[in-house]
């Protein structure tokens, strides 16, 4: 092959490479642009197009900055290294490719573009939110006591400055390592002036960035309790050692870094390479010395007299932590824990008594899924607690959504048409009383069946959006959508809203490509009037719209006044940089539930309601995305606001330590409160907050309260309880009732132990367990009533076969030293009042009527007590026969025992 032909092939190859490169570039840009267009159309269909463009615009801007920064620095570094090589070595000492300017420039440009793309991803991926916060932040109106900087500086300005410094510092150190590796060849760093100058400039830049980083470090002392690499302070935030050693040390190191930078540059100019090590060594020595001095002060000055040295800083820690968790306005009250329960008190608190929860959500979920699904493809994912005004009565209820799971359709029915066009939605909700059960121990329904029947009118029972892992569907097609089964036929419906993405024109092509569905593009069942419903899982939906919030994992469905269904979801606004505040989850040390999100179960419409307009973090997000939020909250939405359990758990946990106002008590942790434990099912677990309907002593109406009892650390008696109001204008108001410290008020675990130790109750529970059934202990609820407190715990019985249902068979009531167990709460309450005051008039006719109505009487009556004694005797005979090896006799006794148990049920 001639030289001319070789050159021709090289040119063709070069052109082919350019064409391939251009095609790859266009393909990447096309894919990214295509996804941007599809995402924008989806967001704009929900009226959040401006939110999308704001985020995209900030990402593009930062992406361009990151690309330019990384690509320019990469190209400049590699170009300088190549030039240093060509100046230092003869041409025959270098690989031929290094001497080919065009090829090397193309390679350097290619590497720079790759580095720029990587830098673009890093900068825009991490920096877009801090950048928008910096440009839009709101003031907290409160300054720290040391630097006198507004809290917003620590929340918004400092994080962005640290991001910039760490990014540039990391980039500088990376390229210094590259330079060291490149100039170590044949000791170039000793002989090449160009190499020395290059490394010197890089070291100088790193030195300036280190100095700037050290100037930021004093502000960081307010955000941590780490005083050195070895030790932590008792104070979260600025401490004695920080003030005395760490802050001055940071300023000294910043000065040393600047001086060292100048020293390095001068040494390079004068050619005194060895002297370049002096500032580097001095800097490292000072860093180590600062850590050692800090550790020495902490050990020998602070530790021997820690409270005295840290007292003023402890006060800042206490006050700022309370502010960060919204605990600084809690009203503390006294509950004397009197032995005052009587019939008149019960009558005064009738609505409280009528809303005592004797069902638990976990067993109830099993019941709903067995009795209210009707088909295998229906599913209840959760049962939630809410409250409604029904027939003029304020009532607490359980409610669950009947959702559709196409994965549970018969295998032959799992076709594209069925999963995309026909089976598109769940149907209706089930609602039951929290305090009423049937004679079989099952929930008393308020809404049930399909179509829904009961106390509320459901005008739109179809659930297109929910908690299930829904696929995307098409509505208003030529196929009628399945509603619910009715006898031998299936009822169908048509979608009646313009809420999806219209599949006409380019939309159909775009979303067919996005779905990777050729059928969607060519099917004659899809028309120009059809609508595409995408991202139907409500958690995915809100995260796709507003990924900058943290969302509660327990959404709940509610019925609006017009009979439509909607989901409520709590959005948390969190931060890591609130000064002096102790963290609750890693570095997070600030949290608010300032946004409530609703998602219409039929249309998928999403509203972000402002629940706490005074939160500066919310105000910042509002400045960033003004179109995202809705300020006017409909009354039927606000009526179903629930203070989130997760937020309350975090706040109550922090309050267990930060309720102590006396600094010395706070320092010694002398009065730490903890969450009590309870026996739930068959194991001891930490108690969770729970909702109750009750009348607070200072008010005249029952309201929806979220509460949590407290016990002292390593003790089981109840020391206090914390609550938060949920209704109307009082939403979010927190309070604490303290019990007398000189008086024992039984705590939940003490009550559980006393239930276990009660001979009659434990005997009954053991007999049920021996009879082939499982005894399930429900949630133990502490119920404050005026100036006293009682406990209620449901007892479930579930047989061992797979299709059995858990049934509430007994309700335990504990008050002071008395414990009773009857079939219903009312019977237990009557029995308790009799024990408290033997002269209390008990409505015997009512009790007899309740017992007669029960199809499976298991409550302790006189006859039942006699039966239990007989069962106990037979069981003892059975055990004696076994111990003596009389197997036939033991079998006969067990047969007789089982027969009598079956006859009694």
Notable traits:
alpha+beta; globular; 27 helices; 19% strand; 905 residues; 32 strands; six-stranded antiparallel β-sheet; single chain; six-stranded mixed β-sheet; 48% helix
TL;DR of this structure?
With 905 residues, the protein is α+β, with helices and mostly antiparallel strands.
Outline the structure in words.
The protein has 905 residues and is α+β, with helices and mostly antiparallel strands. It has 27 helices and 32 strands. The strands form eight sheets. Strands 1, 21, 24, 25, 26 and 27 form a six-stranded mixed β-sheet that branches. Strands 2, 3, 4, 6, 7 and 8 form a six-stranded antiparallel β-sheet that branches. Strands 15, 16, 17, 18, 19 and 20 form a six-stranded mixed β-sheet that branches. The radius of gyration is 36 Å and the shape is globular. About 1% of the residues have low confidence.
């Amino acid at each position: 092959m001639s030289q001319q032909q070789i050159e021709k092939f090289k040119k063709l190859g070069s052109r082919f490479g350019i064409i391939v490169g251009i095609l790859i570039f266009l393909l990447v840009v096309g894919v990214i642009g295509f996804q941007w267009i599809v995402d924008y159309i989806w967001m704009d269909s929900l009226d959040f197009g401006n939110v999308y463009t704001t985020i995209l615009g900030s990402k593009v801007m930062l992406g361009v900055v990151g690309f330019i920064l990384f690509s320019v620095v990469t190209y400049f570094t590699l170009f300088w290294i190549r030039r240093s090589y060509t100046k230092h070595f003869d041409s025959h000492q270098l690989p031929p490719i290094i001497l080919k300017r065009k090829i090397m420039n193309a390679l350097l440009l290619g590497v720079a573009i790759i580095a720029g793309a990587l830098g673009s991803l890093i900068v825009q991926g991490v920096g877009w939110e801090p950048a928008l916060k910096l440009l839009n932040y709101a003031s907290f109106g409160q300054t720290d006591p040391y630097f006198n900087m507004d809290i917003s500086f620590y929340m918004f300005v400092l994080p962005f400055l640290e991001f910039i410094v760490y990014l540039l510092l990391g980039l500088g150190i990376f390229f210094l390592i590259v330079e060291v590796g490149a100039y170590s060849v044949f000791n170039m760093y000793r002989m090449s002036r160009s190499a020395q100058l290059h490394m010197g400039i890089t070291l100088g830049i790193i030195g300036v960035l280190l100095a700037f980083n050290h100037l930021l470090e004093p502000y960081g002392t307010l955000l941590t309790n780490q005083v050195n690499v070895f030790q932590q302070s008792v104070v979260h935030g600025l401490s004695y050692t920080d003030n005395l050693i760490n802050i001055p040390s940071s300023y000294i190191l910043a000065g040393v870094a600047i001086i060292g930078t100048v020293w390095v540059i001068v040494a390079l100019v004068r050619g005194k390479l060895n002297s370049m090590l002096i500032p580097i060594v001095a800097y490292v020595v000072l860093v180590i010395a600062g850590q050692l001095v800090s550790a020495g002060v902490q050990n020998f000055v602070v530790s021997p007299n820690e409270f005295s040295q840290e007292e003023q800083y402890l006060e800042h820690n206490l006050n700022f932590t309370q502010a960060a968790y919204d605990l600084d306005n809690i009203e503390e009250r006294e509950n004397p824990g009197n032995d005052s329960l009587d019939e008149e008190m019960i009558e005064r608190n009738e609505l409280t008594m009528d809303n005592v929860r004797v069902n638990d959500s976990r067993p109830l979920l099993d019941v709903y899924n067995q009795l209210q699904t009707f088909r295998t493809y229906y599913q209840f994912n959760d049962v939630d607690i809410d409250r409604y005004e029904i027939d003029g009565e304020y009532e607490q209820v359980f409610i669950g959504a009947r959702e559709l799971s196409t994965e549970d359709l018969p295998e032959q029915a799992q076709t594209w048409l069925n999963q995309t066009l026909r089976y598109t939605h769940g149907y209706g909700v089930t609602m039951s009383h929290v305090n009423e059960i049937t004679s079989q121990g099952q929930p008393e329904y308020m809404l049930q069946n399909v179509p829904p029947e009961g106390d509320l009118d459901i005008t739109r029972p179809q659930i297109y959006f929910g908690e299930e892992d829904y696929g995307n569907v098409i509505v208003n097609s030529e196929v009628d959508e399945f509603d619910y089964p009715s006898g031998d036929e299936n009822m169908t419906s048509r979608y009646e809203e313009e809420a999806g993405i219209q599949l006409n024109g380019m939309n159909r092509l775009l979303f067919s490509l996005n779905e990777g569905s050729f059928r969607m593009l060519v099917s004659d069942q899809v028309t120009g009037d059809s609508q595409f419903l995408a991202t139907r899982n409500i958690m995915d939906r809100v995260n796709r719209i507003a990924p900058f919030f943290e969302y509660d994992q327990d959404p709940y469905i509610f019925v609006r006044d017009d009979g439509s269904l909607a989901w409520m979801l709590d959005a948390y606004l969190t931060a890591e940089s609130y000064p002096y505040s102790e963290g609750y989850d890693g570095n997070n040390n600030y949290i608010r539930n300032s946004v409530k999100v609703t998602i219409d179960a039929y249309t998928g419409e999403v509203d972000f309601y402002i629940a706490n307009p005074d939160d500066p973090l919310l105000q910042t997000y509002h400045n960033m995305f003004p179109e995202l939020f809705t300020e006017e909250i409909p009354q039927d939405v606000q009526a179903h606001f629930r203070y989130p359990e997760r937020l309350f758990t975090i706040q109550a946990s922090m309050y267990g330590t930060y309720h102590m106002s006396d600094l010395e008590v706070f320092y010694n942790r002398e009065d730490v409160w903890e969450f009590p434990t309870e026996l739930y099912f068959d194991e001891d677990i930490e108690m969770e907050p729970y909702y109750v309907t009750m009348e607070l002593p200072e008010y005249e109406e029952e309201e929806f309260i979220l509460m949590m009892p407290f016990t002292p650390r390593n003790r089981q008696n109840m020391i206090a309880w914390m609550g938060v109001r949920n209704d109307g204008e009082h939403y979010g108001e927190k309070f604490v009732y303290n019990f007398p410290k000189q008086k024992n008020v039984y705590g939940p675990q003490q009550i559980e132990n006393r239930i276990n130790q009660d001979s009659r109750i434990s005997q009954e529970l053991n007999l049920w367990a021996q009879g082939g059934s499982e005894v399930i202990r429900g949630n133990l609820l502490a119920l404050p009533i005026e100036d006293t407190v009682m406990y209620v715990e449901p007892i479930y019985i579930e047989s061992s076969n797979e299709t059995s249902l858990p049934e509430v068979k007994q309700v335990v009531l504990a008050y002071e030293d008395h414990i009773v167990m009857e079939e219903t709460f009312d019977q237990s309450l009557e029995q308790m009042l009799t024990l408290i005051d033997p002269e209390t008039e008990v409505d015997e006719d009512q009790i007899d009527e309740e017992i007669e109505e029960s199809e499976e009487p298991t409550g302790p009556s006189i006859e039942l007590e006699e039966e239990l004694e007989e069962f106990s005797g037979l069981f003892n005979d059975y055990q004696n026969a076994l111990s003596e090896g009389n197997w036939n006799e033991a079998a006969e006794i067990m047969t007789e025992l089982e027969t009598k148990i079956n006859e009694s049920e």
